[in-house]
Write a structure and sequence with these properties.
Keywords: Nucleotidyltransferase, Transferase. With 298 residues, this protein is of the alpha/beta class. The protein contains eleven helices and 13 strands. Helices cover 35% and strands 23% of the residues. Strands 5-4-1-6-11-8-12-10-9 form a nine-stranded mixed beta sheet. Strands 2-3 form a two-stranded antiparallel sheet. A two-stranded antiparallel ribbon has the order 7-13.
């Protein structure tokens, strides 16, 4: 792991329209996955990869994100007085998880623009970007592997995952060539949400990036792309095609990924993780088996 890399950027300024009305006043990143907000899993992943300096790109009505990673003295005092040390420990876990920083995006100009908002904080070192909709199982340390790949190959590293060809239009897509590492490929081109017949592969970009700071200069001159927004895919394509800043490689991820940005996948994620919990799993699995059996019998 490169010692230069210490910072993670988490864009969290989106409106969460797919989860309305739940996200009318609550950030989508604060929706619970079992008993922790989704954003806490993402910060934990960054910290596990050695990145304890975390910048969150927020927007209007996102104050709950800052509050969650801050102390709640009144609540902690009440729990301590009750002697509920187990709950107190869970509440305090997010307080010192990382050194948290926040900056507002201001205008919703796209993911590329959100990342550009991190330029002053990041400075001239490589940094990681973690999207809050994607949860990566801690048993499959994708980000750590990406940091290792960046240290070896230089430039920027993205994460790719195979998807069904009929789903590729939902993602950024990569054209690739092999390297001497089985799980690392060199990216030769990128296309944002291509029609199936125009996609160069079925390798989709998922929400993890390790990026050279040269991307900021590229983003500053990148015009709005698909959807009228500044796309990070377009900026990384420029780097991949030789626009300075080194090559672009990708780790092809074959581990466990949970998409909490889709309502169906969000529900599946909660069920999967609840079933695996030692404190919840046995009773919940028993209830779930009975429930499914009754549903199937109808």
């Amino acid at each position: 792991m490169t010692s230069r890399m210490t910072k993670a950027v988490i864009p969290a300024a989106g409106l969460g329209t797919r989860f309305l009305p739940a996200t009318k006043a609550t950030p989508k990143e604060m929706l619970p996955v079992v008993d922790k907000p989704a954003i806490e899993y993402v910060v934990e992943e960054a910290v596990s990869a050695g990145l304890r300096d975390v910048l969150m790109i927020t927007g209007r009505s996102k104050r709950a994100l800052e509050d969650h990673f801050d102390r709640n003295y009144e609540l902690e005092t009440k729990l301590a007085e009750k002697g509920d040390t187990a709950t107190l420990a869970r509440v305090q876990a997010s307080n010192d998880l990382a050194t948290m920083h926040y900056v507002r995006q201001g205008e919703p100009k796209g993911l590329g623009h959100a990342i550009l908002c991190a330029a002053e904080h990041v400075g001239d070192e490589p940094f990681a970007v973690l999207l809050g909709d994607d949860l990566i199982d801690p048993r499959d340390p994708l980000l750590t592997r990406m940091i290792e790949a960046q240290a070896r190959y230089g430039g920027s590293v993205i994460a790719l995952m195979e998807v069904a060809p009929e789903q590729i239009h939902l993602y950024g897509c990569a054209a690739i060539e092999p390297t001497d590492s089985e799980d690392v490929v060199r990216v030769t081109d990128l296309v944002e949400k291509p029609p199936r017949e125009e996609a160069p592969s079925n390798l989709a970009i998922i929400g993890r990036y390790v990026i050279e700071p040269a991307v900021f200069d590229v983003l500053r001159r990148t015009p709005p792309g698909r959807g009228g927004e500044i796309q990070i895919t377009d900026a990384l394509r420029s780097l991949a095609l030789g626009d300075g800043g080194g090559p672009v490689h990708a780790v092809v991820f074959r581990g466990r990924r949970y998409d909490t940005g889709d309502r169906q996948d969000y529900l599946r994620t909660i069920v999967r993780l609840a079933c695996e919990r030692e404190d919840l799993g046995p009773e919940f699995r028993s209830w779930l088996a009975d429930f499914v059996a009754k549903e199937m019998a109808q």
